[in-house]
Amino acid sequence: MSYENPWYYEGQIVESDVLETYVGFVYNITNLTNNKQYIGKKLLRKTKTKQVKGKKKRSLVESDWKAYYGSNKELQEDVIQMGTSNFKREILYLCKSKAECSYIEAREQFSRKVLESDEYYNGHIQVRVHGSHIKSKL
Q1: Residue 135's pLDDT band (boundaries 50, 70, 90)?
Q2: In terms of C-beta density within 10 A (0-12 exposed, 13-18 middle, 19 or more buried), how is residue 90 classed?
Q3: Contact (Cβ atoms closer than 8 angstroms) between residue 2 and residue 69
Q4: Which three-class secondary structure state does DSSP give residue 14?
Q5: Does 73 score more than 70 pLDDT?
Q6: Closest CA to 40 of 118, 96, 120, 137
Q7: Counting CB atoms within 10 angstroms of each CB, which of 27, 39, 102, 103 has the fewest?
Q8: CA 9, 12, 14, 18 torsion: positive or negative?
């Protein structure tokens, strides 16, 4: 897959430095040939573990967010078949915590009724968030 297709936020191309203070984002990917969409979330960093002198050492490394096209298999197949230029990737919300990402992703999916429409690639909604994790952050 080619990764030349940028992410957009509020109409502007997103650069890595803009995202430094965030944990992740909620996004919309639109297939420009048929307007089918996918709502999801992506974390910007992941934990990497490696052995150093017999001890496990954890560090945060950048995730594959720049090249990411969702976890949905149908969407991924369409991206491969049609090419990345036929898809628009938009960041809807920048999130300061994992819980905020999860909550906003589910909120968007429910409000758009993604499971009730053939206009979305989404096949399921999965969320587990405790209210105390998000009340102070939203």
Answers
A1: low
A2: middle
A3: no
A4: coil
A5: yes
A6: 120
A7: 102
A8: negative
